[in-house]
TrEMBL record:
Gene3D superfamilies: Jelly Rolls
Signal sequence residues: none
Keyword annotations: Gluconeogenesis, Glycolysis, Isomerase
Ranges of residues in domain Glucose-6-phosphate isomerase prokaryote: 55-205
GO terms for biological process, alphabetical: gluconeogenesis; glycolytic process
Membrane-spanning ranges: none
Species for this entry: Citrobacter arsenatis
This protein's record includes keyword Zinc: no
Family membership noted in the UniProt record: Belongs to the archaeal-type GPI family.
Annotated metabolic or biological route of this protein: Carbohydrate degradation; glycolysis; D-glyceraldehyde 3-phosphate and glycerone phosphate from D-glucose: step 2/4
Protein name: glucose-6-phosphate isomerase
GO molecular function: glucose-6-phosphate isomerase activity
Catalytic activity reported: alpha-D-glucose 6-phosphate = beta-D-fructose 6-phosphate
EC class (word): isomerase
Amino acid sequence: MADLAHSYGLDMTVHHHPLGFSYGDEVTGPMPEIRRLDDIRASLRDPHCEGPQGVYAIAMDVARMQDREELKKRMLLFGVVTYAAGRLGEEPVRSQGHIHRISQHSGWSPPELYEIWQGKAIIYMQEYVEDDPGRCFAVIAGPGEKVLVPPGWGHATISADPNVPLTFGAWCDREYGFEYEAVRAHKGLAWYPLLQGNNVIWQHNPRYIPGRLHAVTPRQYTEFSITSAPVYQQFIEDPARFQFISRPDKHPELWQNFHP
């Protein structure tokens, strides 16, 4: 996967056996954290299910060395995640549902911009992690497509094809933090993804007020000046372009009635 990762603006290799990453001479990044099945059982529909013991690898703060100071100045961080192939019992391989902790420098729960590199993703998101989840969306995305999760929404990333490992990059707030308590109290988000053959179907979580799930494809986020180019390359060309990730408070009107 070296060429694929490089095509998205970073000289790095994604590994699946075991899960992890290695970096080129001009790229820095941490040792990946491995999320194991036992770590995420509390967020699964069936916490006793079987599946890959290493579910996904995550590396936060991957960057070209010449970009690091600019990223720190703008309070931005680029993360890379890769999932194992397979399934978690009846569910697809996926992340735990969470919301982003409020950042001290902005006073907001920051948004996140995903870019799919390999596989097929569903970015599931809901307005609230309370009993009434508000609007719920499942955004189905393939390689090269971008999905923006707005501030304060609960969300999870799902591998929609059990036969192909999912890999993606994401722009995040440098002061990032994940909060799981409200989701775990509801034993997951408002909708559980289930695999029927190789297709994803949805089951409502009865611990939330019933509502509707909107299945959509990615749109162009022209109001944020995002183009079709790889998102890391967009930062190289215009370091100010993703300031809305770390400072969503600067343009609150763009988040009102946001539609993924």
